[in-house]
């Protein structure tokens, strides 16, 4: 992933920087699911 998480998902990066650093793909996947659910 070329984009930095602070530009794409600032709240995710602020809340879970360690988690994001360890598991970027999983964290992004979960974040997108939560976002979709909240917007639905």
List the helices and strands and how they pair.
Elements: H1 5-8, H2 10-15, H3 17-22, H4 24-39
Describe this structure in words.
With 40 residues, this protein is mainly alpha-helical. The chain has one domain. 80% of the residues lie in helices and 0% in strands. The longest helix has 16 residues, at 24-39. It starts with a helix and ends with a helix. The mean pLDDT is 78.
Low-confidence stretches: none
Main beta-sheet strand count, sense and barrel state: none
**Strand proportion:** under 5%
Question: What string, H for helix and E for strand, traces the elements in order?
Answer: HHHH
Oligomer: single chain
- Count of β-strands: 0
SS field, number of helical segments: 4
- What average pLDDT do the residues reach? 78
Assign an overall shape: globular
Please identify the structural class as seen in this structure: mainly alpha
Kindly state the percentage of residues in helix: over 70%
Overall radius of gyration? 10 Å
Give the terminus-to-terminus CA distance: 27 Å
Summed up, the domain count is 1
